[in-house]
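Exercise 7b. Backbone tokens:
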């Protein structure tokens, strides 16, 4: 028997052949067993640490495909995973054994410029959403790596360069079509199934499969004042307190993130700096260019930068600016904390960690949030962390499996060192797979309500390949 026959046989043992044949006959998309077309693509996700083999992949092409597949998974009591863009660090988009719903063939984006709304299918990436919306001079806040999936990012909350001006991604979600565990499609919005709509906005993939998202859009671009300012890491102790002060003063239009890492070989950096530790300020002004020049002046006046390449850039280009550093295929492990403010202690812990990077691709990101996101009540949506003003990510990233121990330990040590200065909450979309004990803390006061809504829409926890919220007893 060949390897392929063994795996096909295993799939048929987990799911009876006649059931698979029945589903195959109903689908517009395809079913892929190990060795069949599309199977490897569907099970391969952004984080190369995750190497799981589902028994079968349903490559859905429509809401009807999702409905039929969810019903099959529920009736056959299969372990079920749901894949949007496949970017999540924890790797819950793929399961071992069981059934994987792959949504990557459902990626249409339809923009209605008159109502300034967009309908987006769950396999679309941020790049695809941005490109369509920008054709009409419109945008909604998403994340900073354009290959990320709209689905997972939105369900976890979603923030990026224009969040301080326009809110989280979920603050711009107006409705979603969902297939909960009973396999009946529902619309969730402020007016229909409002409890489900509340839970979807931050509660992750716990409540069902979203087959369509509707977003509100805002006029923006086509260019935004944006770019990088690069300093030697030796200046970080002096400059990060200034960054903290400015972050607390600037208008909502200006967002500045700080990144500490070894300098990549960027064309505008003198060669002697390539591979040396640097502090990078990445800034984006979502508004008028002349106002942006004024708002960024203080940041650009700090210290003596090695390079300052802040200038007008197409918004879609800026949204992809970090893509070359965040390509798929590397091994990744993250730790994250929310901060009301960046204390000197937190800054010290981060700088010390950057002085001891275990691989050239490891980095510390400090995202600047707040603004419009903070003016919404923490109980208005499932996302509770509205008081966070900064989010720190320890991004451990490396290529060689033998470096797993050192790189994971580095992220954990920074996380522990920074914890005393942090809020205790965390963004679920930045949590690795070994943090299930942190889920309740992540949702804080919203957890109990989420657990009750989970009981209503998924009483048997069919959707458990996620940062899991158990159904309330
Ligand atoms: C390099 C990188 C940069 C990032 N930058 C940002 C950022 O700037 N801002 C930010 O907010 N986040 C950011 N993230 C985090 C990102 O939001 C999460 O990784 C998100 O889960 C990715 O969504 P996805 O659809 O690609 O992921 P997937 O791995 O496909 O999905 C993640 C989980 O979401 C659920 N899910 C996915 N699709 C559906 C669906 N249609 N219905 C129900 N459940 C579903 C499943 O439980 C799945 O396990 C970043 C991640 C990476 C790796």
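Sequence design result:
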């Amino acid at each position: 028997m060949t390897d392929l026959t063994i795996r096909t046989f295993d799939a048929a043992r987990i799911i009876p052949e006649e059931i698979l044949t029945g589903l195959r006959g109903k689908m517009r998309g395809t079913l892929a067993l190990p060795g069949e077309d599309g199977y490897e693509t569907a099970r391969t996700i952004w984080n190369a640490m995750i190497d799981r083999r589902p028994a079968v992949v349903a490559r859905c092409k429509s809401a009807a495909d999702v409905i039929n597949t969810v019903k099959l998974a529920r009736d056959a009591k299969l372990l079920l995973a749901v894949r949007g863009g496949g970017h999540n660090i924890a790797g819950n988009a793929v399961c071992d054994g069981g059934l994987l719903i792959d949504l990557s063939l459902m990626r249409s984006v339809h923009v209605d410029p008159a109502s300034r709304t967009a309908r987006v299918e769950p396999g679309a990436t941020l790049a695809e959403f941005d490109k369509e919306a920008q054709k009409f001079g419109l945008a909604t806040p998403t994340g900073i790596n354009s290959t990320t999936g709209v689905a997972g990012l939105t369900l976890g909350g979603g923030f990026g360069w224009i969040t301080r001006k326009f809110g989280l991604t979920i603050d711009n979600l107006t409705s979603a079509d969902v297939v909960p565990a009973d396999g009946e499609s529902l619309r969730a919005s402020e007016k229909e199934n409002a409890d489900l709509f509340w839970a979807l906005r931050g509660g992750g993939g716990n409540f069902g499969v979203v087959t369509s998202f509707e977003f509100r859009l805002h006029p923006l671009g086509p260019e935004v004042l944006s770019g990088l300012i690069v300093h030697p890491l030796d200046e970080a102790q002096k400059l990060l307190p200034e960054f903290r002060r400015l972050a607390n003063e600037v208008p909502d239009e200006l967002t500045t993130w700080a990144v500490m890492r070894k300098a990549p070989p960027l064309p505008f950096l003198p060669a002697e700096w390539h591979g040396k530790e640097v502090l990078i300020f990445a800034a984006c002004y979502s508004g008028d260019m002349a106002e942006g020049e004024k708002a960024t002046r203080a940041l650009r006046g700090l210290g003596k930068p090695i390079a300052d390449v802040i200038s007008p850039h197409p918004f879609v280009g800026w949204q992809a600016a970090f893509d070359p550093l965040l390509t798929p295929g590397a091994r990744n492990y993250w730790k994250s904390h929310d901060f009301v403010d960046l204390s000197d202690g937190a800054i010290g812990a981060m700088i010390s960690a950057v002085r001891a990077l275990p691989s050239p691709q490891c980095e510390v990101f400090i995202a600047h949030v707040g603004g419009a996101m903070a003016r919404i009540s923490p109980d208005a949506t499932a996302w509770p962390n509205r008081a966070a003003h900064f989010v720190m990510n320890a991004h451990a990233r490396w290529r060689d499996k033998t470096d797993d121990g050192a790189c994971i330990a580095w992220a954990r040590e920074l996380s522990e060192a920074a914890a005393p200065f942090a809020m205790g909450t965390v963004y679920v979309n930045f949590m690795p797979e070994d943090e299930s004990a942190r889920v309740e803390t992540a949702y804080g006061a919203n957890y109990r309500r989420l657990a009750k809504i989970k009981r209503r829409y998924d009483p048997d926890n069919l959707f458990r390949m996620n940062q899991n919220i158990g159904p309330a007893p």
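Instructor comment: The longest helix spans residues 404-418. Confidence is low (pLDDT under 50) at residues 1-9.
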